[in-house]
Amino acid sequence: MDPVKVNQLVEFLASGSLPAGPENQALRDSIRQRAKNYVLRVNGNLHYICRRRKERVHLAKVVLTSKEANDIFIEFHSSAIGGHCGWEKTHRAIIDRYYWPIKECPECQKRRSSIKEKQQYLAIGVSEPFELVGMDLINAELCQKLGIKRSFCSPYHPQTNGLVEKMNGTLQGCLNKMVKRNPQTWDEYLQVTLFALRTKLQLTTRHTPYKLLYGREARYPSQVPDLYVVTDERVTELLQREEVCDGLKDQEQTHTQARANVLRSQQKTTLKRAKKGHEDHFKVGDLVLMKNIREEQRKGGKLEDDMLGPFSIINIQGKSVDLRATNGSEEETN
């Protein structure tokens, strides 16, 4: 606890003295209200009265200042007898003796942190078909021939390739339902499954991917016979041409609607995620820890720290940051 607040409570409980002056009226009310939960012992130590309703007991805990709290934390957590136990075990060991909210120590931050930060939601803007293409495997030669600029994601971190990974999960779920009895035949159902996904309403754009690309809805096999039950091939050809022209005229309007729908959906998702927690906001100069990928990949790495660092942020580009270690070496990570 703040030493100033401790002294205010001690003085009030010992002699009833409070800060004078009309400007301190709110402070006096605050001290009186807080003092209801404290007692002053004969030795001059301030104790906090903890009321445990379920156990029907009252505990008097020694109130610690910031300096005293640090010493107690070292004894109960960071020392050899503390054992660097987790938040809950350390808290349980202290809670019956002292009044002081604890957090984490640097060593434990490099292992499994008890604080889970909600990741920032980054919306991907789109304006037309094939403006952005997500692929799992693509070689450098093909990119060079087609003039494609590649953006790499981090290994073992599929969240940075969310466009592909989300689609892969949906595709896998559909194929799983089709080939339950014979999984080896999944490739025989791949094209029809993709057709099914491309011709279904996409909740973000409010249109089917097929319509966004071709300007009209797809025809299912059951629709084809009715379209061609005609006697005059010339009439059929003209009708088809007219339908295609109408579709092309409406396509730009459809794309405009889709862009507006995507924007609304992304804004709605951003607001929804904002209500569930807080996001990470880093800036150049911040000290951060970096996930130890080697610990997961290397045999015998279980006793290594889960996090490396601290590092200083020297540059930020979207979700990618450049880090500098204390020895001067630089790293790039996502």
From TrEMBL:
Matching InterPro entries: Integrase_cat-core, Integrase_H2C2, Retrovirus_Pol_polyprotein, RNaseH-like_sf, RNaseH_sf
Domain Integrase catalytic: 130-217
Gene3D superfamilies registered for this protein in UniProt: 1.10.340.70, Ribonuclease H-like superfamily/Ribonuclease H (3.30.420.10)
Any one GO molecular function term: nucleic acid binding
Pfam families on file: Integrase_H2C2 (PF17921)
One annotated GO biological process: DNA integration
Protein name as catalogued: Gypsy retrotransposon integrase-like protein 1
Native source species: Mugilogobius chulae (yellowstripe goby)
